[in-house]
Amino acid sequence: MSAAALRVRGLTAGYGKVRALRDVSLDVPEGAVVAVLGGNGAGKSTLLRALSRTLAFHGGAATAGTVTFADRPLHGLPPDRVVAAGLCHVPEGRQVFARMSVEDNLRAGALAAGRGTKAEALRRVHALFPVLAERARQRAGLLSGGEQQMLAVARALMASPRLLLLDEPSLGLAPLMAARIADTVREIHAQGTSVLLVEQNAALALRLADHAYVLEVGEVTTEGPAAELAASDEVRRRYLGVVDERAADDASAAEARHLAPWEDA
Ligand code: ATP
Predict the structure, then answer these.
(1) 160 has pLDDT over 80
(2) Which contiguous run of DSSP H or E holds residue 2?
């Protein structure tokens, strides 16, 4: 396995009696974009929280399994050590510090890495998101939803992660803004950062990813190259909203038979 690869084996996690992840295994090779698809409550956010070791903040815990990054065990580390190891988590719902300025939000991202403010990192995120340079002194809470998502991603990038964990970056955004966020993910990847992307928007995720996993009720049920999953009837029907014409024809034929059973006789 390559140097900065993430390797998850048999991860089981939950919240008290609620078992949210069961025996989940997945890999993010160095330099890859890997997507995790799944509907509401499938366990996608729990997976990222377990990886960033922030589950306890949500009343949860990982109860079994191993997580290694660059061959180093992460399970058992506190969240700040996970960041220092090179993993940064952008949680669902953006969660920027609304009363702080855009620039102070970015500086907070660098502090979380324990390496102080980095002019170089700031230059890099400003190049990626020019609007954040223009709005540096504005309160983060006054940005639009899309700009707040950019700020949340930029704040994580301030810690210069080797692997970015992105939870539903397109959630609640208009299609144009979701497409801009997708372009940014491509750019971040092109600059050498691996990405583990959790999305309900399967079409967008499969366009961005090299490889994808499908999570259903806390378990991985399907995995494969993103292009293969995008072509699979099952994935197309369940996650891409594509109607399977053959199945639809069978259903209407069955319905017709049901309505006029004597015709079969
Ligand atoms: P969504 O896309 O709706 O965010 P998800 O795939 O991210 O869904 P999770 O949020 O990981 O799913 O939830 C997995 C399961 O854990 C669900 O049954 C959910 O109700 C439960 N759960 C999530 N967070 C908590 C919590 N803080 N306390 C108790 N149960 C939780």
Answers:
(1) yes
(2) none
Euclidean distance between CA atoms 42 and 48, whole angstroms: 12
What is the CATH number that goes with domain 4-97+160-231? Answer: 3.40.50.300
Rounded Cα distance, 257 and 229, in Å: 34
Ligand 1 pocket, residue 18 CB under 6 Å = yes
As given in the structure block, the two tokens for residue 207 are 């366009």
Q: What is the tally of helices (H) and strands (E) in the chain?
A: 11, 10
CB of 146 closer than 6 angstroms to any ligand 1 atom: no
Are 182 and 134 in contact, with CB atoms under 8 Å apart? no
Ligand 1 contact via 15 beta carbon (within 6 Å): yes
pLDDT of 247 above 80: no
Strand partners, 222: 214
115 touches 144 (CB < 8 A)? no
Residue whose CA lies nearest to ligand 1 atom number 18: 41
* Rg value, the chain, Cα: 21
| CA max distance for the chain | 80
Q: Is 91 in the pocket of ligand 1 (CB under 6 A)?
A: no
pLDDT value of residue 95: 83
Question: Residue 18: pLDDT above 50?
Answer: yes
3-state secondary structure of 38: coil
- Examine the pLDDT at 184 and tell me if it is beyond 80: yes
Q: Which of 12, 44, 166, 171 to mutate to test the pocket of ligand 1 (most atoms within 8 A of CB)?
A: 44
Residue 76: predicted pLDDT: 83
Strand order in the sheet with 163-167: 87-90, 163-167, 194-199, 33-37, 211-216, 219-225
